[in-house]
Design brief:
heterodimer; A: 439 residues; TIM Barrel; 2 domains; eight-stranded parallel sheet; two-stranded parallel sheet; 12 strands; globular; B: 467 residues; alpha/beta; 3-methyladenine DNA Glycosylase II, Chain A, domain 3; 3 domains; 17 helices; 40% helix; binds iron/sulfur cluster
Amino acid sequence: MAAKKIKLSELGEMFKGLDVEALEGVKIEGDIEIDLGGAGLSPQVAQALGHETTQIAAHLINIARILGYPADKVLGIGGAPGIPAQAGRPVLRELIPAKFQANRFEDWKSQIQEVTIGATSADGGTRKSTVTLGGERALPFYPDAPMPHRPHITMDVFDMPIGMAKAVKSHYEDIINSPAEWAKKVVRDFGADMVTIHLISTDPNIKNTSARDAAKTVEDVLQAVDVPIVIGGSGNPEKDPEVLEAAAKAAAGERCLLASASLNLDYARIAKAANEFNHVVLSWTQLEINAQKELNRKLMKQCNVKRENIVMDPTTAALGYGLDYAYTNMERIRLAGLTGDQELSFPMSSGTTNAWGAREAWMTSSPIKEDSDWGAREYRGPIWEIVTGLTLALAGNDLFMMMHPGAVAVLREITQTLFGSIESEAIDISGWTARGIKP
Amino acid sequence: MRVKSPLEVYRFLPQINCAECGETTCMAFAARLIDRSKKLEDCPPLLKDEFKSKYLELARLLAPEIREIVIGTGEHAKKVGGDDVLYRHQLTFFNPPLLAYDVEDTLDDKALVERVKKIHDFKKFYVGRFLKLNGVAVRAISGDRTKFAAAVKKVAETTPLPIILCSLDPAILRAGVEAVKDRKPLIYAANETNWKEVAALALEFNLPVVLFSENLDTLKSLAVSFAEMGIKEIVLDPGTYPAGKKLRESFQRFLNLRRAGIKEGQKDVALPLMAVPMTAWFVENDPVNASYWETVLASVFIVRYADIMILHSLEPYALLPELHLRDTIYTDPRTPVKVNPGVFEVGAPTKDSPVIVTTNFALTYYTVESDLSSNKVNCYLAAVDTDGIGVEAAVAGGQLTAAKIKDTFSKAGFDFKEKTSHSTLIIPGLAARLQGDAEDATGLKVKVGPPDSGRIPGWLEKNWPPK
Ligand code: SF4
């Protein structure tokens, strides 16, 4: 059947009183032309033509719909992008009932490995408590499957005084010369789940203290606190294997997290120490999912590290300084782990303290003249640490290495709230539009 | 979008390879449509009448899963929604969330104007551009139509930014709408009780509208009903609780709505979502705590699927992380993050000006460059090709070495004897360990600059010219 042109003038007549009969015999096909004085009926045009025309167009659309014709499609409304088409139609008398169906939207196939850090006397250690990470069967805090373990926080302790942002330093000045006292403080006063002892003085470029000194420091910290600990080297690839090996021996049986094995140092030696003295290995790579796979594979296949003894650190970059890479890298790793990649299905750890490297966290004011005032810096640092950590928590990170007590408290609050373990009194949010806030 | 391959798109294109779109072939253009780096309107032949039906079909096929709507007018108009994926690495997220900050209609004129200006003016330089806030939400605290309308009018006079009118009282909303109807404000909100009047308002003035219900059946019912009435520009607010289990449930409502829209093509709810982190202020009394918690809520919903947000705190320590996180999540992961290696002039360097080394990671380079230029430091800045890796990681990973530094200058044909009077190079503080090697490799004096480029101007005052 040939296309029939419908003139606007006819339309007016046709639809007076919604005379649907008039359309009988008018077979509307894909190539229908609606001739509005030369212009095709696009919603913008309809609008431009004014209210009356729009009304008629709306009627046409309605009738076309009644006839089962996909009017939205041909007229470019509904599916078409960014085209406002709010032709005036009568307001309904009742809401159309509907049910929202929350389905199993995603296909999570595999569980993230559970890894327990710390050993109690029952398991050959001396810790009072242990921390279990991993076990997820969906992205964090998703309704799809229960999340077995909440995110945990381990707080940094250094084996020598180091340069810190002022807002951080003020909390540690009293104990900065004693790693043991420092460790006690973060557990007792700041509620750290774990403690990380960073053996930075062993770096040949810093103090070059011996592996034996490092082992002693680790013993002191284990004595001082009864939570599980992370043992961190100085980051010097030549020295770290030796230092971590000595520390692992000193902490034999405690299931510490050894930080870190990486591709640019003798990871096999660290893995061997972990296997021999019952510790967990932190597998550290730099923002590169394939390198992470490779290192995990090497740890498992070459070094015989068991799955339950591997945690990953895919690298944390601060908010504004590469967090987009860190976030997406972690999210991809977690998604891979949840959808069957056995080489990436391990819990993750984040050096959230890196957030303090962002100049917004510590600089007195902006070095850029055109910037708006950055305000007081003591408030900027902690929130930088919080937002960096929280973003990664949402990507799937399980363990947070942190520094500022205030940041620790807030990150704990939000992650445990999303985890579901925090109650709150009833709040009515519906009236927010009319509720004043005191200046 | 309902098509996955360029071939499917190609079928509908003119197939004449005229290159008017800037691509050499229609097939190449098809690929750009799929990755959303070009629009249909970039192909002039397709806009001709003879291709009308193909154009319309393509428009339908290429429409993003989440509807894209526009709030405001002119150059400050903001598109929201428009996403096609759940995870940014799968493509990229489009249309960064509109961050609107509230203004109460009970403020006196002076305070109101001051607050609006603050919202309008706030800016933070980042990687070659400014991060900015982009909306004002006027809240009807007064309960008085005239007062609300007057406040709305004042806001509109003070800023061209998009405006959100917030009240659950349709009469008050109407007064607000009438005051700024030509600015295409967003109406907040229709709920189970007021929906008829609010729908009438949206229809009469052809305005986008937010539907609110924390019950997703009700929310969907509102969405279906509004669609049936012909209202296309709809935003869904599934409720943002600020604390406890209710917050967890709020978060999960965002997840389920967005997944229904993208994963399952549930068109009724494939709409932009609104979060209201401002509710933090109803559980925290201390303003610092409230600002912090509001920023925390904003972060949660920036990462997981809010397209519009209403916030209160204008403290820089809240705004800076909000702006940066929005940029973090919405930055296109497909665009290169490197600048071309080479030696560049900052300002107007002379023979006595310093020569400074950094990496070609875009963020590092732009940060250093802007620190130097905004402080009017005239110098040469060398971007070493580190594969787009920052200084610290590049030193550790071997992408920033003495040889690479030497290479950068020789490739650029930069001769220190001819260009400088001092034969001195300044390397980043974080690359201090390269000092000796760099001196050996280049035969120049090598000085170690500060670890943060923001401190270069101060450092130069003390250390330049070299003794
Ligand atoms: S402008 Fe259109 S017709 Fe010409 S090459 Fe590009 S896609 Fe093909």
